[in-house]
Amino acid sequence: MTRDHKQGPVLIELEDSPATSPAEAPPVPDVTGPETSGAAMQGVIAITARRPSRLARWFWSLLLSILGFVLSVAAYDFVTGLITRNPYLGYAALGLTGAFLFVLLIIALREWIAFARMRRVDALHHAAEQARAHDDLTEARDVMARLKRLYYGRDDMRWALERYREREGEVFDTDTLFTLAEAELMAPLDQAALREVEAAARQVATVTAIVPLALADVATALTANIRMIRRVAEIYGGRSGALGSWRLTRAVMTHLVATGAVAVGDDMLGSLAGGGMLSKLSRRFGEGVVNGALTARVGVAALEVCRPLPFGEGKRPGVTGIVKRALAGLFGK
User: Buried b / exposed e across 9-33, counting CB within 10 Å, b at 16+?
Assistant: First the structure.
């Protein structure tokens, strides 16, 4: 069998096909991994900022009331029945029950005191805002008197209070009085609070980058942020108990969501960590930096909520600087 044509390339001409160039070709998709978005901290913010529905609040209130009623009746029947059968054991059980109720009363009293201190700090913060808005020196001096009473008796504030009292009489306008309070009273507390924020951001970033376990970053972010918010509140004078810590955490997260300060893209961290060079070198490391940045943002919101005086113009700490110092602390002593 012979071939009638020479072997060679086959040319197929398409008359209607448009001419294309390599410059017009679509870009090659990035397959280095998904973009880093701080999923752990986004989940923590969503969980703590979510307000339960009215039906859920009624459900949990009624459930706790029923459980408390049932346990009270069961304890009463148990103690009275034991006294009838064996008076010695019965009175021992009665004493243990009384001691338990006494401890519960102390816990409830501490929670009430914690809520009272938080309301006191909130009222002082609101009064300071009003005094600045009205530019009233009398209101400002009243706010400073309440602020000195808040920190009276604290050993770490004794020197700062003495310096403030020495210079307070030289001030005759509202702005200068607030500036003096910022420099003498708030500055040492701000430094201590920022160290807590940096430590929390460092911990969240490290665990996210190193620990590969599922939900480990979420659990670490949740516990680190609750502990950070509680420590910031204690530094500024608003000590909180267990229930108060959760209420304070919800207030901070609600403030964070309300002010729109949840995203990372409004400063240099967006290009640094959000799918940039760090996430291409290591996606876990990029995710850790984003989670650390969001933790720092939560810390700044905690400072704004827990601080008895609102930040002055240009005094609000920056998230980028906090994250830089937190990551630099990984390699320091």
Answer: eeeeeeeeeeeeeeeeeeeeeeeee
Name the H helices within the chain. 39-49, 54-85, 87-134, 137-151, 158-168, 174-181, 187-210, 216-236, 242-258, 269-273, 277-281, 283-306, 319-328
DSSP state of 155: G
22-37, pLDDT tens digit by residue? 555 555 444 444 445 5
Q: Smallest Cα–Cα separation from 290: which of 312, 305, 274?
A: 274
Q: What is the CA radius of gyration of the chain?
A: 30
Contact 194, 322 (CB under 8 A): yes
Residue 156 per-residue DSSP state: G
For the chain, give the mean pLDDT.
76
The one-letter code for the residue type at 105 is L
Torsion, Cα of 85, 90, 93, 95 (10° steps) = 170
Confidence of residue 265 (pLDDT cuts 50, 70, 90): very low
SS3 state of residue 51:
coil
Of 238, 75, 67, 70, the residue nearest 147 (C-alpha): 238
Closest CA to 221 of 36, 49, 42: 42
Local structure of 310: helix, strand or coil: coil
CA separation for the pair 213, 324 (Å, rounded): 26
pLDDT in tens, 284-327: 677 777 778 888 888 888 888 888 888 876 677 877 788 778 77
Q: How far apart are CA 11 and CA 74, in angstroms?
A: 94
How far, CA to CA in Å, does 275 sit from each of 30, 208, 271?
10, 16, 7
Determine contact, residues 279/285, Cβ cutoff 8 Å: yes
pTM: 0.69
**What value does the mean pLDDT take over residues 168-174?**
82
Averaged pLDDT for residues 61-66: 88
Residue with tokens 């200068």: 176
Distance CA 232, CA 5 (A): 88
